[in-house]
Amino acid sequence: MNDVKTALAWLERHASKATRDGMARYGVPSDTAIGVTMANMKVLAKQIGRNHELAEGLWKNGMYEARMVAGLIDEPARVTAAQMDRWAKDFDNWGICDTVCFALFDRTPHAWKKVARWHDRREEFVKRAAFALLWGLTVHDKEAGDNAFVDGLGFIEQGATDERHFVKKAVNMALRAVGKRNAALNAAATKTAQRLATSLDEHAKWVGKDALRELTSPALARRLAAKPKR
Fold first, then answer.
1. Is the pLDDT of residue 226 over 80?
2. Can you say how many angstroms the Cα of residue 125 is from the centroid of all Cα atoms in its chain?
3. Domain ranges in the chain?
4. Contact 137/150 with Cβ under 8 angstroms?
5. CATH class of the domain comprising 93-230
6. How many other C-beta atoms can be found within 10 angstroms of the C-beta atom of residue 226?
7. Environment class of residue 5 by beta-carbon count within 10 Å: exposed (0-12), middle (13-18) or buried (19+)?
8. Per residue in 159-202, pLDDT tens?
């Protein structure tokens, strides 16, 4: 299954009106969707395997499900910085944004540069992508030192005042994710969250207070204490 037409036909066969109608409940616009479950999109992606050319073809199609599959099958080593900018400009919902960031962009050599360049962009889902990338890097970049994530905390503090729901949620999740990476970063993230929690800005205050509940939880403290030190 290595051409766009065949992949689209597979998606059409696995689409349903019920799935499409249910997307709105999760904040995913359905005007470009046909109604394929995430489970089925992963099945198709597994059948295809990694395929950079097919990913580009599916992305250009514009269908929600086609773009989701594109993010699952593209080859991180072949993704360019220009492609990342081009795809990010097309992000129009959190599902596409997060899937592409978690499954593809955070595995590319350009990921950290895009966190730095996108964190203060005005476009809602490009800005969300910066924090989704940072969130993903806490899990997938095993070699990154703490300093990179401390820099990320600075971006988080700047982004916490954004009033838009999908940006604010990503900032919050990135803050929590950094604080779960190791004990030292937990201490740094907790300080950031404490400052935000006392902010006069209501959005920053929510980000900080919500993050503190997890960052200071006994369960997380026990898990971090059990982690082997690098």
1. yes
2. 10
3. 1-74, 93-230
4. no
5. mainly alpha
6. 7
7. exposed
8. 999 999 999 999 999 999 999 999 999 999 999 999 999 999 99
